[in-house]
Amino acid sequence: MSPRVTAILVVHDGTGPAGPAGLQGTLDALAAQSRQPDVVVAVACDAPAATTLALEQANIDRIVTSGERLNFGQALAAGIRVLEQPSGPDEFLWLLAQDTAPEPDALARLLGAIEVAPSVAIAGPKLRDAADGSTIVSLGESVTPFGATVLLVENELDQGQHDSVSDVLGVAPAGMLVRHTVWEQLGGFDPAFGSADDALDFCTRARLAGHRVTVVPSAIVLTQGSGIAGPSRSNRPAAKRKRARQARGAQLYRRLVYAPAAVVWLHWLSLVPLGILRGIGRIVSKQPGLVGSEIAAAFRVAFSPIRIVRARKNLRRSKVAGWSSLSALRIPTTEVRRRRRLRREAGVAVYTVERSDLRFFTGGGAWLVLASGLVSAALFFSLLAASAVEGGTLLPLSASVGGLWQHIGYGWRDIGLGFTGAADPFSAVVAVLGTMTFWNPSYALVLVMLLALPLATLGGWFAATRLTERSGYRLIAAVLWTVAPPFLSALLAGNLSGILVHLLLPWLFYTGCAAARSWGSAAVASMLLAATLATAPALAPALLVLWLLALAFSGRHVARVFWLVVPSAALFAPLLWQQGIVAQNWVRLLADPGVPVQTASPTGWELVLGLPAGNPAWDSMSDALGLSGVPAYLLVPVLLAPLIVMALLALFLPGSGRAAVLVVTALLGLATAAAASHLFLTVTGSAVVSIWPGSALSLYWLGLVGAATVGFDSLRRSAALPALVIGILALVVAVPMGASLVTGGGQVAASNGRTLPAYVAAAASADPSLRTMILTPEPDGGVSARVVNGVGDTLDNQSTVVTTDTSLTDNDTKVATLAGNLVSQGGLDLSALLADYRLQFVLLDSPPSTVGEPASSPAQEMANRAAASLNANAAFAHVGPTDRGTLWRFEGEPVPPAAVGGDVPLVSTLVLLTLGLIFGFTLLLAIPTAASRRAAEARPRIIGRRSPDPAPRLSRAERAERDAAAEAEKAIELELAAESNEIDEREAHAAAPEPGSTETEAGDGVEPRQSDAFALSRSAGSPAADGQATSHRTSSHSADSQESHGR
Amino acid sequence: MADKRRIAATSGRVLTGVVGAAVFLGAGLVVGQDALPVLAVNAPKTTVTPTASDQSRLCAGPLLRQGGDASFASFAAPELTTAASSAPEQTVIAAPDNLTGDQFGTPTVLSVSGGEGEERPRIAAAQSQVAGLDDLTGLAATACGEASADSWLVAGSTDVGRTSVLSLSNPSRADAVIDLSFFSETGAIDAPGARGILVPAGQNRVFAVASFAPGVRTPVIRVQSSGGHVVAALQQSVTRGITPGGVELSLPTAPPSSTQVLPGVVLGGAGPAPDTGIYDDSIGALRIFVPGTDPAQMNISFVSEQGTEPPQPLNYSIEGGVVQEISLTDMTAGSYSVVISSDLPFVASARTTAVAGESSDFAWFGASAPLEDTIELAVAPGEGARLHLFNPTGADLDVTMTDQAGVVTQLAVPAGGAAAPTVPSGRAYNVSGVGGAHAQVSFESAAGLSAYPIQPTSPLATPVTVYPR
């Protein structure tokens, strides 16, 4: 009896770009078969009339239509249902999809292979990519010991190198020839599979039923990979996600179906935890888009028990052979590992672009950082032995790391009399800082002061590596960044925000401009952005503009650029909600976090020079030297002018695109600084304080120095002298500021880590819930009253919600009433109030001396009045003058603390959980992996400079060719290694031949020669890429052989 | 082709450069001009009116006579007048230094409690006593004072024949630790034992000034207390040879200020004494002290209460840290309000002497601080009482005086002018419409000469501006 072949053609419409055209190709190929199928059944799913018409015209015997979009398995079942039951083993089904066009002799060869061996139930063709006709898409499938699908051959150029394969565990669904009886016996494809693993599962069941599965490399089917038969091969992110979800789902499904009954429940329990773990793995491996796929697959399988039970029953029914019979066909673990390595190396060898060395040590960067560190040690000599610092906006931190982290997110804020609200995002930055010196969180600020200069140098140097490859210009840029006037002003004024922003910005630049390149950079940049914005919220508008620009130019990596703002948004969400959405005070979000401290207001020209708080150092120096003829306000602009000129000159030079972006950055910084110095948002006592313009000026300076560096880089060697001059002039500007730091012009001093007298600290350490009221006489004769908790103010427990609030809250009224009566002789019985608020101490601060003026007389009168009233108050005992003011102790017994803040645990937990999730996600994404490092090395370090000979864009076929060449090289190398091993062994017996001759001999393989010839022929097409590949080969070649000889 | 591209690229760069540089310089210019408006929030503040407290006044108690062994004893009880918005409560202060105990009375605290509401209760009291001993004669009338943490006594003398007794009473609930500072015509006096004097709560201590500062003609005493507040009083008596020259009990004068007003200084009817160039404390004088070391320029002007032509203003330069007296020699008898202004804060008071019966008596006229709009006024029992009102404000004052019987007296005090109506002895008044004025009560009769300034309630209870941040 002659074999009878029924071809089943599954047609979807519009599944891919091929569409009906692909169908026509398949129909034509079907008609051109040398061995015509006896019957052709078409299954048209959701197909328009045009498609049906095409089918009718193509001599199809039966057309089955379906209104739904059935998957391949279901569609086949629908097609086969209309056939008669098979009468003998010689009836075959040939499974085709609309985009699979068989070569003319495909059916004949498949039949030939299956006819001669009755044990063979399934024969699969070699699938090639229809786009180029020469890349192998599939040539048999197998599984790893863990059950993951492995394509035996994938994306290789077909040179007949795998034509010896025959028995396999499974074959791809497209073009599969299967005995009809076996099909019926096994119940066809399991419809639970989507487009992944349906054929593999079927083949596995066939194997277990005692049949063989072979692949016939001589039978060739071209497939477009539109996802009807087998997974889609599209590179669109959505298709990738779907593929990953289906592949993982299929693997889990098969695991549950194949597992012994006793352990199924174990596998079932592990589904979701494993899904989450693998999701984390996806994040680490920089594929955040696939996290959802992993978890969705796990849930999908976990909640389809009925299908699994049915599939297990089906398997049991047909199974005659044991699982051990498949072991020879599985891919062993060692082979899995080998394949993975091969694929990795093949990828690298081809793509590597020569990335220059960093030259941090040889280029002098390290020495500059060291020098900067020594200068810093000299400037901050008095802080070397300090355990805490004070002055400016510096305050101690909470004593314990746990305390630090309690002050983030949303919840009960123990500020003043306490309130429930959002924490400043800056608290999180402080918490991270404090955790670094967990043994004494306050010491972190000492380190910030001591290491500020070297860290700025380091950051500046690394940021410069994004702009120039020349070591000299990197050094100049690092120096310019270190001596930036806004930075030195911040160090002088003890403005923590200004210092931190200046340290963060270069790294934000370094990672941010590479964000579109890699998920790792995007993740690091997103966290740096969050830290920067938390430290200086006023930068938000400027950075937002830059982000929108980046987003507009991000191209297909828009997701990475978009991610940049996600952690910031999460961090700011509680405050945005409270200050923006609820209170409608959006501008208050820009207020500087931390302690408001009054500083001198800069003039506009000083801002243009990057001076955020005037130029006291230069003024005092010119006074001291009697340089009234050359005032500082003329000298400094002259000294800084060359830098600005160079930055603007860069716009005229080649590569002006980069300079333009940097000049825009500088302008944004300048505009922000100008606005910041005019925004008086925070309140301290009777004074209102403007936003510190220094943070924005750091951004301005970044733009200027960056643009100047671009200019140096464009001018190449001829800019050496101007660069040196610019660097030296900037140093000259910095010298008086540095000198001012040494001579005590700075606000920062070593402290004992207390903001309240030791007496209070001792009492508060016994009972941290005690409060102290600090009364400060104001210049207008009023008095400011603040309530502080426990041992006093901490940097992590400040709130812009309080410092920017200009209305009188209930708490304010309570405090004011109490304070007003404390400084008066009144009839109010304060004892009850004091006990109620747990106020145990009253500290009368000396009147603040406003900038340049002594304590005014009204303030002194108020101080006298307050002292007199407190002295006369029988409820208070006069403790005495302390280093922080005059102290009184309340003699009454404070009410035991009520449980406060316990009423919003849900919101606060949710906020913390969200923050934890997002930052955990970002951290995992930021962890560098071997693969991400390799990917980074494949790109030049410089951003934005157009390379003189851009790498040509390659089509998929070309890439596949190169991959094939690389794979072949790897094969040679492995072979070489093996052979040289053999030779070594031989040498152990015989006299040693010359190593060179060994190499020549080793090169004498059949396959290597082929691929060598191929590589040579390709080198005409893309000289750059292949030249590198060749050089790489020879170098690794010799390295390999040397290594093997060394053994 | 390549050339064209290069030209396009170059011109693109030049355009970028020109536009970029122009924008940058323009932005620099705009920022440099500093023309942006300032957006500044207002610091939240609130004015807190301290809750009305109990008001209390301490009356210094009977005149004391210093024995030879530096012990003190009283000989008669003073008479008291009280004016209050509600019935006052009387508490007695223990006077362990008085050998006669409470036989002739002790220092007494009069206090009224604040009722419901914000209105502060008002109270005023005054006492007077006529001494008729061999060595102690004259009238000593004084107001009952409010306790204070820092007060200046500008009175007294420890010259030969002059006795000054310092009485410190602590009406508060807290013990007071007193630091006394003595200043004289030669500067600050290093007085042993003047620091850290403990006055327990509810007690009175008495000291002879001579034990701290002997032989001083013109002492000025600063009393500073920590802990409880005290009322300091200085009793001065004069004996010229064997003739008693009067007695006076003085409370602290107005605190240091660059303007001091001494309303109603009465210059005795005996007429101006000849200026002999020798110090004589029977000649009327202003005693002025400028704390610190810098000299102060003083301008002293007079306003006659009789409407007569006042003397020409005087200009003096007063050395800092040294007590000086300016004799009032060339002035016709009458009463004057003396206004002293200076460029530095200072304290001042005036002493005059008048013939009283067969001998003479003197009085200290303290500086008084501006009054609130409504006050209680107690006129101590004594003949020849007059209320002196001086109005330094720019507006006429219409003063309404209501006595306990409800009898209303209207009085007009012109802007910059003074008025001096007589008032009945021992009468209590509610006086309204005196905001900003200065007041003094004087007694001039055959019994003697005496005066006391009316002081406003302690400024420690005025509304205060609080910044709750």
From TrEMBL, chain A:
Residues 936-966, 978-1047 are annotated as: Disordered. Gene3D superfamilies: Spore Coat Polysaccharide Biosynthesis Protein SpsA, Chain A (3.90.550.10). One of its GO terms (molecular function) is glycosyltransferase activity. This is Glycosyltransferase, GT2 family. SUPFAM superfamilies: Nucleotide-diphospho-sugar transferases. Pfam families: Glyco_tranf_2_3. Belongs to the glycosyltransferase 2 family.
TrEMBL record, chain B:
InterPro entries: DUF5719 (IPR043777). It comes from the Bacteria. This is Uncharacterized protein. It comes from Mycetocola miduiensis.
